[in-house]
Specification:
Structural class of chain A: alpha/beta
Number of strands of chain A: 18
Mean pLDDT of chain A: 92
Distance between the termini of chain A: 11 Å
Largest interface: A-B, 81 and 80 residues
Oligomer: homodimer
Number of helices of chain A: 11
Shape of chain A: globular
Largest sheet of chain A: 8 strands, mixed
Chain lengths: ~350, ~350
């Protein structure tokens, strides 16, 4: 008797880091950012449908490990993500991530994917999708303060989705700016390294802050920010980590993903619990106002929410059939008779 | 320039269903059940150390998908598990599961494993480890009521850990009993199929109930249960699913894993919220009493807790080096410079 192969349901498609990178090049990074932004925008439109659980965090003195689950009633997804600021000193990533989709109807997993690269893409796609709704029309200049791992992804998403073609770059470490300038050659930007945040924001319609220090920092002070700009504040994303002076928040219209999470993790952790914010999904589905005035400062206090990961996994899943960029993992036991798991194990005995 | 291979940290060892079954045969199912019971007992002894989160459940009308995380401060683990009773009608498993271990210090995953087979093994190992502490000394006869997927694992664990060598088997579906009898040939049991629960428990020192109906059922009524027995009640494991008449609970000393979870999912969901129970870990570490009297009925109201999955994953991880029964998954992005994720993606571009 030959050992029967597991049925197709026993296999879970797995997208490795290598296949994720191949997928980026197969589709092209700019079309992929655009595609991700479309999936994210679709899910913001139907935000109300989703099961929204707070992150399930396991804290230690070195960092945090989180599970971020959500479901739209048909598909369930979760992301595993860690945050360990001291990892870089040991040559490791601060953040690593992977994610899973499953069918709600059966509970069977249908996709396992690396999400370190994918999270960088979805974070940039979310920022640009939000800026499309909030930034001044015809924005072409972005200040990019913080030139770490997220900066190039932000720049390209803002280019393909919002039309940004001039970048004013600043980082406390000039080597980081040099790296970003090097990486963005050939993508059609005018690249302008700057020697202070003040200099970087001159003439910018969009200001992106994406710095990595885990502390209350003040990257931007109130007197630096002129009327009419859009601030894309994505570096402050955990308790005790902010980038903006509270006076900027007071002068701005603040837009968030999911208030219960943003009040803990975002820039608005500095503000009272009743500080007024607008939920971004309501702007997108037309039930709340976005920018109403040319002189208004709009501020996206982005911390990253489970639904964006769900959208990104959904996008990746939809590319699998055409690209074949995955491996089948034998992850689900599949006995012929569900009551005979023991028999399945016994029949696998080597002769 | 050749593309550098990811470092060893970028790889996560993955134990597939096939490799889990090979592991069972490499070690032998009985030594493996014994090994698992030892790991579980070790973790019950240091129960207080663990971060104990309730399950994170996503309910739908068809079933439930749960994440069960825990941590001992050095290692973090979680299990993904679904429960979809209607799946069997479609030829699918009611329950599928996989699990992960990670290092708390770095947040990096160190093991991904199938857990459908492993959960069956750990459930049996837990039952037998508990029975070792609570069942009458010298027990040799077990009644096994419910002869589904868990029955053979329970029988073998009770044999290797408690010395059970005579099994009295009953299931509402005789075909299930026949399957269990067939599967347990050659393991040294006297196998006695019975035509009623009443008949099955005659002469048994241990009574295991493991039926699958999702409803309030009464597999055992009070007048059936004689003095001095140990009841291993593991079939009732979700709200609305119980197996025992409440009068049996009143007459018994009830032992549980984690009271907040068992009061929702276990047999004691039928009882008032202050119904007295003993936490099993306290019996094992000597801070609470187990069996104190030959005529006492001890009852383990087992629902399955995250720490048991953690112990099982820890056991599997410790076997990997010697057996090599795993695949390396390229799951963690590993740029040479953590700030240059984009550069890593760009360098992977096909020429």
């Amino acid at each position: 008797m030959t050992k029967p192969a597991p049925s197709h349901l026993a296999y879970v498609p797995f997208v490795s880091v290598e296949n994720m990178m191949k997928l980026v090049h197969h589709i092209g990074i700019e079309p992929m950012l655009k595609g991700l932004a479309e999936y994210i925008e679709q899910d913001f439109r139907r935000w109300d449908l989703f099961d929204k659980t707070p992150r399930v965090a396991s804290h230690s003195k070195e960092g945090v490990i989180e599970l971020m689950p959500t479901s739209d009633g048909e598909v369930y997804g979760f992301k595993y993500v860690n945050g360990h600021p001291k990892n870089t000193q040991e040559g490791l990533q601060t953040v690593t991530a992977f994610g899973l989709l499953a069918t709600v109807d059966t509970g069977y997993p249908v996709l396992l994917s690396e999400m370190t690269v994918l999270t960088a893409l979805r974070t940039a796609a979310t920022s640009a999708m939000v800026a499309k709704h909030l930034a001044p029309k015809g924005s072409r200049v972005m200040a990019m303060i913080g030139n770490g791992a997220q900066s190039e992804f932000q720049a390209l998403a803002m280019r393909v989705i919002c039309g940004i073609d001039r970048l004013r770059l600043y980082d406390i470490d000039r080597a980081a700016t040099d790296k970003t300038v090097r990486n963005l050659q050939g993508f059609g930007f005018t690249l302008e390294p700057c020697s202070s945040p003040q200099e970087a924001i001159e003439g910018a319609q969009i200001i992106t802050t994406c710095t990595a220090d885990k502390q209350y920092a003040t990257i931007l002070t109130d007197n630096m920010v002129g009327a009419g700009v859009h601030i894309n504040a994505i570096g402050g994303d955990c308790p005790g980590k902010t980038e903006l002076h509270p006076d900027i928040l007071t002068r701005s219209s603040v837009f968030v993903e999911y208030p219960p999470q943003t009040r803990i993790e975002g820039e608005i952790q500095q503000m009272p619990a009743d500080f007024a914010v607008t939920e971004m999904w309501q702007v997108i589905n037309g039930t709340a106002k976005g920018r109403t005035d040319d002189r208004q400062i709009t501020l996206f206090d982005g911390v990253g929410f489970a639904i964006e990961d769900f959208s990104a996994l959904r996008y990746v899943r939809d590319q699998l059939r055409d690209t074949g960029l995955y491996q089948d993992l034998d992850m689900i036991a599949d006995p012929d008779n569900p009551r005979d798991l023991f028999g399945m194990v016994q029949r696998a005995k080597p002769r």
